[in-house]
């Protein structure tokens, strides 16, 4: 087998952050002279050298990457079968890292299929062992491979790589959209990053961004090449794709409630905290795009942060090089500003606001639960991201009531459906609203709508977990728990409303949804339509209620209209 490995070369494909447009890591892809890497591993399996060959390929990937002298995290591939074979087999990988001067924390081990051929407890134990040694973990082939979902919960990987076959079906396949949405929510809950592989088209990229996926790779962004494109940017591609909210799908695309700091993560340029100033100067001169260097201890924990501008001013001034070059770089550094990986972008800005004025624009260091450096966040990226989020939120609000529209309600309903919750959805509107406008005028009609919006907002603040929305005209939607439904409905229907002294009444149709009784917001809206029609047929303030799968309708308030004639 060693002779066959001599003909293996490597191509490098960057992974991009879909918020910042920059490269955050590079994957090494084996390219045998003849056939594919799968063919090579099959030959090794038949010869009884699968694990040795697999590890040897990872070692060669590390050495080939070192020839290009980049400091971004490197992704290498290892089979799940290899990891549970014998921990001693990974010794050559540690040796390769020492040889090229890399730390385990700078390596992401992508664990590949098949998973079903190895006992899951042994695989989880092996993955936890790798993490204790400092490696970062990614699970590959998720969505089309044989990975049990429980493995994602047990292994707690740093990254989950979405299989290219799933990405290829976007955005036209509702089931695949639901799959990506579910995986994204799982990753958000466990602290992992979802990475989309094989992005080939603009609609695929737009759908992924709309679903909240923040890392991706594929030929649309950058093809695998012999020389890694570590300074590439996809800002132009993101601009051409446009607004992810504009993607037409048959399934509502959820939007995250707010960005986390990891959405803006850049790889950190690190050096040991024993480095001298000349070591830092060489890094900054060789890499003009680097804004600072993080000095870390032996465990990868940040101890000092070197800002590019302040450091270069010190060492390039009169006698600066002579004074500082051979002395500890920490003399020209500051204590790092640190945020946890679970922090929100708003929490990060709170850290910035408390900083000294001269450090306002310094990078912030993101750390994991063990306080090891995961990367850095640039303040400008976060400010821009939050500004974009606020613009999106403002655009989604109804200009009259400042309540969110149907998209927000759709996301809330789908979240509760996915979570298996029991909940209720209500559709509220004004009886004979056209007569209000025709009699009291449009201004009075607008003020009436504002008054109802204020009442709904107050109700939502009284019962946490209740979300209200204004979907247009005199139509409002409410999503709430079953226990809160009756007091909320009573409060709304008992509140007197008028337009220029003209009394008005409200009609309410509610649908109580048990776990598994509905599949989506679209189905809920369809089932509510006949209930609303039934409520409008009643006299005065009215309330009717139904349940999915039942033809029965409860009339909880209102009386039949009297026949005329």
TrEMBL record:
Residues 421-555 form the GGDEF domain. SMART domains: EAL (SM00052), GGDEF (SM00267). PROSITE patterns: EAL, GGDEF. The lineage of its organism: Bacteria, Bacillati, Actinomycetota, Actinomycetes, Pseudonocardiales. It comes from the Bacteria. InterPro entries: CBS_dom_sf, Cyclic-di-GMP_PDE-like, EAL_dom, EAL_sf, GGDEF_dom, Nucleotide_cyclase, Rev_trsase/Diguanyl_cyclase. One of its GO terms (molecular function) is cyclic-guanylate-specific phosphodiesterase activity. Residues 1-238 form the EAL domain. This is GGDEF domain-containing protein.
């Amino acid at each position: 087998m060693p002779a066959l490995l001599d003909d293996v070369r490597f191509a490098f494909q960057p992974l991009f952050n879909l918020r910042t447009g920059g490269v955050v890591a590079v994957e090494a892809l084996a390219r045998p002279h003849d056939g594919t890497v799968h063919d090579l591993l099959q030959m090794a399996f038949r010869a009884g050298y699968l694990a040795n060959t697999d590890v040897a390929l990872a070692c060669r990937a590390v050495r080939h990457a070192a020839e290009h002298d980049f400091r971004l995290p490197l992704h290498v591939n290892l089979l799940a079968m290899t990891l549970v074979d014998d921990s001693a087999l990974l010794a050559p990988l540690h040796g390769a890292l020492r040889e090229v001067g890399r730390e385990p924390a700078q390596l992401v081990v992508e664990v590949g299929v098949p998973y079903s051929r190895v006992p899951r407890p042994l695989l989880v134990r092996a993955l936890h062992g790798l993490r204790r040694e400092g490696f970062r973990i990614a699970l590959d082939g998720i969505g089309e491979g044989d990975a049990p979902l429980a493995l994602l919960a047990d292994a707690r990987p740093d990254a989950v790589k979405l299989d290219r076959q799933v990405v290829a079906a976007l955005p036209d396949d509702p089931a695949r959209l639901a799959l990506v949405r579910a995986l994204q929510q799982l990753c958000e809950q466990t602290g992992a990053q979802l990475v989309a592989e094989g992005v080939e088209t603009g609609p695929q990229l737009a759908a992924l961004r709309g679903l909240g996926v923040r890392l991706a790779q594929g030929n649309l962004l950058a093809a695998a090449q012999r020389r890694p494109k570590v300074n590439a940017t996809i800002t132009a591609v993101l601009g051409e794709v446009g607004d992810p909210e504009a993607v037409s799908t048959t399934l509502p695309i959820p939007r995250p409630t707010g960005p986390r700091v990891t959405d803006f993560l850049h790889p950190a340029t690190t050096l040991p905290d024993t480095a001298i100033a000349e070591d830092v100067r060489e890094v900054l001169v060789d890499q003009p795009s680097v804004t600072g260097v993080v000095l870390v201890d032996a465990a990868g924990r940040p101890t000092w942060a070197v800002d590019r501008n302040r450091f270069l001013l010190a060492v390039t001034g009169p006698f600066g090089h002579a004074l500082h070059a051979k002395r500890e770089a920490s003399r020209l550094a500051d204590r790092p500003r640190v945020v946890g990986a679970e922090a929100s972008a708003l929490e990060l800005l709170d850290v910035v606001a408390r900083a000294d004025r001269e450090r306002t624009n310094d990078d912030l260091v993101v750390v994991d639960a063990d306080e090891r450096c995961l990367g850095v966040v640039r303040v400008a990226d976060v400010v821009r991201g939050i500004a974009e989020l606020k613009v999106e939120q403002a655009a989604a609000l109804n200009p009259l009531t400042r309540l969110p529209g149907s998209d927000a309600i759709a996301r809330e309903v789908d979240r509760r459906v996915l979570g298996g919750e029991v909940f209720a959805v209500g559709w509220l509107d004004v009886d004979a609203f056209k007569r209000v406008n025709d009699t009291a005028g449009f201004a009075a009609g607008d003020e009436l709508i504002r008054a109802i919006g204020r009442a709904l907002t107050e109700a939502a603040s009284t019962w946490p977990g209740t979300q209200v929305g204004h979907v247009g005209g005199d139509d409002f939607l409410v999503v709430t728990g079953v226990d809160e439904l009756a007091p909320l409905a009573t409060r709304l229907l008992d509140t007197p409303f008028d337009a220029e002294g003209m009394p008005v009444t409200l009609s309410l149709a509610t649908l109580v949804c048990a776990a598994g009784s509905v599949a989506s917001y679209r189905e809920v809206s369809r089932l509510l339509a006949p209930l609303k029609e039934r409520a409008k047929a009643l006299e005065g303030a009215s309330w009717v209620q139904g349940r999915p799968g039942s033809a029965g309708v409860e009339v909880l308030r209102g009386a039949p209209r009297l026949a005329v004639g």
